[in-house]
Amino acid sequence: MLHAYLVEIAAAPLAWLIILGLTGMAVWKAIGPVRSNLRLVVQIIFFTAMTSVLVLADIPLGQAQRLRIGDERTIFIVFAQLLWWLHLSWAVIGFVRIYLVLEGRPREARLLQDIVVGAVYVCATLAALAFVFDAPVGTLIATSGVIAIALGLALQNTLGDVFSGVALNLGHTYALGDWILLEDGTEGRVIASTWRSTQILTGANNIVVLPNSVLAKQKLTNVSQPDETHLLNITVRVVPTHSPSIIEEAMLTVLAGCNSIMREPPPLVSLNSLDATALEIHLFFRVSNPMLRMKARNEVIDRFYRHCRSTGLQLAMSPSTIAFGNLSDDTARQRDLTLEDIIAENPLFSGLTRLEREKLAQSGVERQYHMGDIIAQQGQALPSMMIVRTGVISIQHDQREKRRLSSGDFFGATGLLAGTKETDGLQALTRVTAYEIDPQSFAHLIADRPAIAEEVAAILSASSDEVGQLPPAAMNHERRASALLKSIRTIFST
Asked: Is 264 helix (H, G, I), strand (E, B) or coil?
């Protein structure tokens, strides 16, 4: 008798409904979760086909009578209906996922998908129980409510984390990849947000895991919104030996020569207070992302010190030092910076003795450039090396700025020492004072101290990587230094 029922069902639309349901499950499983869009298309196609068969064959979604033992046809109808409800839930879940992708909500996708998937499966299960098995769903819901209250009391802390996570994500407080700063000082980039906790990667390369309930109670600053540019402020004190306007211009030159800070919006200088001992100045500048704060601060402080040394500005003592005793005029007075001082502070000449530095400084010639002057064209070979005393120089390649030079930096070394042409152009952005090193004096120095050539080649190779003065080559730092050393020895031996 069972065989007769199977033959009858196979000839009926009910068989096609079961075949479509099972085939859709197999294809859905074979596609895998990686190709989610294809999965969605397959879910829609099979669900549409099953719905069409269901409607055309007039197969009921509900069971009019209770299941009876031995009624094989009823069992097949129930099985087909369960397959339809399952494909309905998959189709709804697929639509929700594709909606989140098209709306561009990757941060909410995980939590919302989990919520929707759970809600869809619960609704589909209750609907199948009500329509297919004619079960008392109202009683089940009431019973589950009592169980939910008991579980809620037992899992109060966990549920607090869950709902706090939902509130944080739906409230657009932060997104994955944002840099956030918490009230307790924790700072870093958000790398994961789960039901229970949020993971933050700090600048020390550590992962801090914060429960969502704790995170929701803290004051949070999103550094990445509206963008990741970050405003920094450094306070400096200068002895008022010059007028405030001149000192302000000098501080703007300091900021103009920094390469780690942003050009737009332009940095600002604020003269905060003035007394007989110090002019207090605030330097405001921006960096492109929070990870550059330390590098930018270090560079601004270094440029500030160099520029003060080169222009004769004196750093003011702290108020506490002044309160305990005044310095004599001779101690407070700072002597003018000479070419020998600049040579001594330049790493390129760190191996020279004091006598050698004096001889090299005596041969130096001071050069002046006005704002906008072209110091060197791209492709031009400079016959001598120049060291910047004051001012800012722009290094440009194909009319695009690569970086800037300011007090203490040098250029033209590759032309003097290696005989190569400048791959970048040089233009004065402000009034520039530079010292030109005499090639003959440097040639005598290399001849007397051959070991200096090796030190110069190593330093020049390292600086060329940063400045971009040498053309790109598929060789490492050691090979480049060796090539430079060979060029230096060839040129100066000749």
From this structure: coil
- 67: which residues sit within 8 A by CB, 6+ positions away? 74, 75, 78, 133
Cis peptide upstream of residue 319 (ω within 30 degrees of 0)? no
Element holding 385 (H helix, E strand): strand 385-390
Is 184 strand, coil or helix?
coil
Mean per-residue pLDDT, 52-77: 62
Q: Compute how many other C-beta atoms are within 10 angstroms of the C-beta atom of residue 368.
A: 13
Phi, psi angle pair for 149, to nearest 5°: -65, -40
Where do the H-state alpha helices sit in 171-260? 212-217, 244-256
Strand stretches in 429-487, DSSP E: 432-437
Cα–Cα distance between 129 and 171 in angstroms, integer? 36
Interval 227-262: pLDDT, tens: 888 899 999 999 998 889 889 999 999 999 999 999
**Angstrom distance (rounded) from CA 340 to CA 450:** 21
Given this model, what pLDDT does residue 10 score? 43
Q: What's the pTM?
A: 0.61
Of the candidates 304, 329, 153, the residue with the CA atom closest to the CA atom of residue 237: 304
Report d(CA 93, CA 367) in Å as an integer. 73
Average pLDDT, the chain: 75
Residue 9 has what pLDDT? 44
Q: What is the DSSP string of 388-419?
A: EEES-EEEEETTEEEEEE-TT-EE-HIIIII-
Mention every residue, 6+ apart, whose C-beta is less than 8 A from residue 350. 455, 459
d(CA 112, CA 118): 10
At which residue do the structure tokens 């209250």 appear? Answer: 149
DSSP letter at 364? -
Longest alpha-carbon distance in the chain: 119
Q: Lowest mean pLDDT: which of 31-35, 430-434, 453-457?
A: 453-457
Phi, psi angle pair for 289, to nearest 5°: -155, 160
Residue with tokens 């990757």: 106
Spatial distance between the Cα atoms of 2 and 117, rounded to a whole number of angstroms:
38
Q: Please answer whether residues 441 and 359 qualify as being in contact, where contact means their C-beta atoms are separated by less than 8 angstroms.
A: yes
The confidence band for 119, taking pLDDT boundaries of 50, 70 and 90, is confident
3-state secondary structure at position 269: strand
DSSP for 237-260 reads EE--SS-HHHHHHHHHHHHHT-SS
Instruction: Assign 34 to helix, strand or coil.
Output: coil
